[in-house]
Design a protein that fits this description.
single chain, alpha/beta, Rossmann fold, 7-stranded parallel sheet
């Protein structure tokens, strides 16, 4: 049987796989990479291009394990980076003409579209797999191929991140007016399937429930997590808490402020053993760095390898209050056997059962759950076993491979 030739289109490079988006995009391909011929076209900003150049032959070899070809195109500037009202207005009017979403953070790129068309012709591509609503614009300009939209979030819940509340009235009217139009375009594509995708993939049942079963098939493909190093044996004479996440995402900054102000003081006061809080993530704001004392609170910034911190931790916290999608860091922590305390928002979308982790939404309750863990090695061990079992049931590569095959079966049933 002839292998499908599939072009994967992403708004960022996939390697190094150091973010949830990259991990999910790569993880939906690698479990079935031996069954089809995958090609990649990714957008990349200057910093990412430098990262690719530094990776050299080793990075190219890593890509070659999954993709028959890899290409990168420059990611265009977003409106916030454009100088002059005329350029911003041209940006918004172009997006309006094509009815494209995410106008305030759009990666629409005519050169990338031409590159995709060339790859389709030269490689004989059979199918498009488009990751994120950010890259949905490709579908409008490649309408004749079967196409799958892989949703990492329900984006219309998140945008616009930057409503304009200051500046001249015409600027505020322009920005916020097009922001509202952007949300309508997002709804049309995500919910109403205005771009006529042949199938849609979702990372969680929660996200999938937003979208009607018609007019195209919906398939759940869970976040894949390969085996990760297990945590070290828990100790009774200390309690280490870990948080991981990029500070470029506003909900993460909000979450850590809430945790440091409302939860951590009670944990410090009531644990009965020395405590440490380790915060890991790129671009920590200065006000957060100022709260680090390198004795109880450590702000690490970006860390190349988080395994040493994760394997020596006693609890992983996810105090998110807003946002959408599935947190890969929760799944990785559970797979490692690291007990997790999360808000309901932080762990939504995961098929968790009582006992897989601890959930609390109020600061005092969140602190109480952490104090239970600090005082009981046995509870930590119980949750450790439950977390590893959960990850094996729902996120192992073979589970993801079976889900991805259902996507292709759904296309075949539609004659595509």
């Amino acid at each position: 049987m002839r292998r499908r030739k599939i072009l994967v289109l992403t708004p960022y490079p996939l390697l190094p796989a150091h973010s949830g988006g990259r991990l999910y995009a790569l993880g939906t391909v690698t479990p079935v990479a031996h069954e089809h011929e995958f090609h990649l076209l990714a957008l990349a900003n200057p910093a990412e291009r430098d990262e690719i150049a530094r990776g050299g032959d080793a990075l190219r070899a890593e890509y070659a394990k999954t993709f028959a070809s890899v290409a990168f195109e420059e990611r265009p500037p977003i409106p916030h980076e454009l100088r002059g009202r005329a350029r911003k207005l041209r940006h918004f009017l172009t997006h309006t003409a094509y009815r494209l979403p995410l106008m305030d953070l759009s990666y629409y790129s005519p050169p990338a579209i031409e590159r995709a068309r060339r790859i389709v012709r030269e490689r004989g591509i059979d199918l498009l797999e488009i990751h994120h609503l950010h890259a949905a614009f490709y579908r409008r300009f490649l309408p004749d191929l079967p196409a799958v939209l892989i949703n990492h979030n329900i984006e219309q819940e998140l945008w616009p991140f930057w409503p304009k509340t200051q500046g001249p009235a015409p600027d505020r009217w322009l920005w916020n007016g097009f922001g509202a139009l952007s949300r309508r375009c997002a709804h049309a594509i995500e919910i109403d399937n205005a771009l006529h995708f042949d199938a849609k993939v979702f990372i969680s049942t929660r996200d999938m429930a937003h979208v009607p079963e018609a007019p195209c098939p919906r398939v759940l493909v869970p976040m894949p997590v390969p085996p990760v190093p297990p945590v070290e044996p828990f100790a009774r004479d200390r309690f280490r808490v870990l948080w991981i996440g990029g500070f470029g995402w506003p909900p993460n900054v909000e979450a850590i402020s809430w945790f440091l102000d409302g939860v951590w003081p009670a944990v410090r006061a009531g644990a009965g053993v020395p405590v440490e809080l380790h915060l890991v993530g790129s671009d920590p704001p200065e006000e957060l760095r100022a709260r680090a004392d390198d004795r109880e609170v450590f702000v690490h910034g970006y860390v190349e390898d988080v395994e040493p911190l994760r394997t020596r931790a006693d609890a992983f916290v996810v105090p998110l209050l807003t946002g959408s999608g599935v947190r890969i860091k929760i799944v990785e922590a559970l797979a490692a056997g690291l007990p997790v305390v999360s808000t309901a928002k932080g762990c939504e979308g995961l098929p968790l059962e009582p006992g897989d982790l601890l959930v609390a939404d109020q600061p005092a309750e969140f602190a109480a759950r952490l104090l239970e863990l600090a005082r009981s090695v046995e509870l930590r061990e119980e949750l450790s076993r439950a977390g590893r079992a959960y990850a094996a049931r729902h996120h192992a590569p073979e589970v993801v491979a079976a889900a991805k095959r259902r996507v292709y079966q759904a296309l075949e049933s539609r004659g595509r």
